[in-house]
Amino acid sequence: MRVALIVEWLDSRRGGAETSTGQFIAHLCELGAEIEVFTRSEDCEIPGVTVRTLSVAGLFKPLGTPLFCQKADRAVANGRFSVIHSLVPSMVADIYQPRGGSYAETMRRNVALRRGALSRWTKALAQKASIKQQMMLMLESKCIHREGGPAILALSDYVRRQFREHYQVEDSRIRVVFNGVDPDDSDEQTRRDHRSDVRRRHAIAENEYVVLMVAHNLRLKGLGPWIDALALLERDGGCQVRAVVAGKGDVRPWRRLAEQRGVPISFVGPVAAIRDYYHACDVLVHPTYYDPCSRVVLESIASGLPCITTRFDGAAEAVRDGDSGYVLNSPEEVEELAARVRTLSDADIRGQMVQTIKNREFSHTMRKHADAVFDVYRTLCAR
Fold it and tell me: Is 326 helix (H, G, I), strand (E, B) or coil?
């Protein structure tokens, strides 16, 4: 089965979506798919996969993504593929699987994260004036509504609802193939070693209550509300928290904000072995404004780490509220976030939750995700 996979970027350093895509491709190959990837990424080597790098030249950088979509369509049209699977809007794809969710919802949530009515109004106006964003909206709508349009694969029920609300797509055209991550098979000794190593590296005592946040886009993933929640905990007392933030990006404005609020935060930068930090910390917070289905939350559950996220994260569908973590109605619920972190500071409550997670078989694996997509491939080929 020859599959053309259109994905703009494959560099895992860009974020979780690109990391997931790389793992996803590896599992598809194990299932027997012959994958040919069309991408803008250079020097991208994936064992057993043919990678076609499509350069997008042009003086106007914002048009890079729309131009890539068009160039990729022309490139795959010249091949003889069993299935054309696109992660960007495509006019020739059999399957459309936006791993970042719909463009319409992405734009809406980027407005919602702005604080203050004037700031939100300004952001919405800027989006309407953005040639790139308006072109991507147009391309996505055209892709979905074209005659004989593609099957839509949604990473979560949240993403399915996006396409129903923004584009009036019938549920019969959408299949939820829940996101996945590779399971954490670390034994207890390895977990203890990781905990000791990471805590020693950052001068964290064994008995300190450590709450982890992992993100590259710190504003979108809710670092602002998390700093506000930490300030509340600091003011009210009774709960000492050591906050650790892992991820790339400019942390200087966030460090200044934390200092102004009197909140100590350890910014550790990008981490190659993030699983070591899951083993070293006690709770994960992910008060995100938008995530189609966060791999960070799924990885934390796979590692046995309780997590706190929001309903604007598709991965919240894998969190049993009060059982494997907590789900906030909004990242702006700062008092609720602080209260949940305070609750989990109790070692007995946290221990019960950790044991519940470990006793339950982790089902949201990347292999299961790839199996479901491969089933869609077989169905399309049979037709």
Answer: strand
**Model pLDDT, residue 331:** 97
381 to each of 35, 83, 199, 364, 368, how far by Cα in Å? 15, 7, 52, 26, 20
- The sign of the CA dihedral 232, 235, 236, 239 is positive
What average pLDDT does the segment 337-343 reach?
97
**Inter-residue contact 369 to 178 (CB < 8 Å):** yes
Structure tokens at 197: 């190593």
pLDDT tens-digit profile of 175-211? 999 999 999 999 999 999 999 999 999 999 999 999 9
For residue 5, list its beta bridge partners: 37, 85
- Work out the mean pLDDT of the chain and round it to a whole number: 93
Q: Given CA atoms 83, 86, 91, 95 in this order, what sign does their dihedral have? A: positive
Inform me whether the pLDDT recorded for 57 exceeds 80.
Answer: no
Is 240:209 a contact under the CB 8 Å cutoff? yes
The amino acid at residue 59 is: L
Whole-angstrom Cα distance, residue 28 to residue 155? 16
Could you tell me the CA-to-CA distances from 230 to 80, 255, 281, 322, 340 in Å, in that order? Answer: 56, 13, 16, 21, 12
373 close to 31: Cβ distance less than 8 angstroms: no
pLDDT digits (tens, 9 = 90+) for 74-86: 999 878 899 999 9
DSSP category for residue 150: P
Cα 277 from chain centroid? 18
pLDDT at residue 121 above 80? yes
Whole-structure pTM value: 0.93
Within 8 A by CB and 6+ apart from 209, the residues are: 239, 240, 241, 242, 282, 283, 345
- Find, among 215, 362, 380, the residue nearest to 285 by Cα: 215
C-alpha dihedral sign at 282, 287, 288, 294: positive
Q: Which residue matches tokens 């929001």?
A: 310
| For helices 16-30 and 295-302, angle between their N-to-C axes, nearest 10 degrees | 70
- For 291, residues 6+ apart whose C-beta sits below 8 A from its C-beta are 221, 297, 309, 312, 313, 314, 315
